[in-house]
Amino acid sequence: MNNIFSVDSIRFIVLVLIQVLVCNNINFFGYINPYPYILFIALFPVKSNRVVFILASFLLGLTNDMFLDSGGIHAAACVFIAYVRPVILKFSFGTIYEHHTIKFASIAFGSKLTYITLLVTLHHIILFSLQVFSVSKIIFVLQKTLFSSMFTILLSMIITIIFSQKPK
Known about the structure:
mainly alpha; Arp2/3 complex 21 kDa subunit ARPC3; 7 helices; transmembrane
């Protein structure tokens, strides 16, 4: 258990640093902002305590909110996707999730892509809806969600592929 805790703590710190130092400074065409810190929520162990997981997700979002001065929208989006993650896991992985035997390094690419896509898209819809907070600008919210989601999904898949490769 201590090993998992330390790996997740390191993942938390590294993803926050990547987000704060690199990705928060990326803004293509006013629509594309990558948020790879979501990988912490996506890769958190399935068998872990749900309360600890939701609290860690809240802290992840709150940490990003503090650096971005964004008033809690990242925390809200992170808590939301942490809360609905079991449904997304069941949809993406089916019986593998029901038996709690998910090993992300050995999961098929299509299942990983579906899982990451759903998490990222839900996160971005909540995040940008709270950021804009105007029904009249729904097209703008959908554009930001679409473009940022595509870039975040691509970046997240590259990161998971690079770091899930086993040494030969």
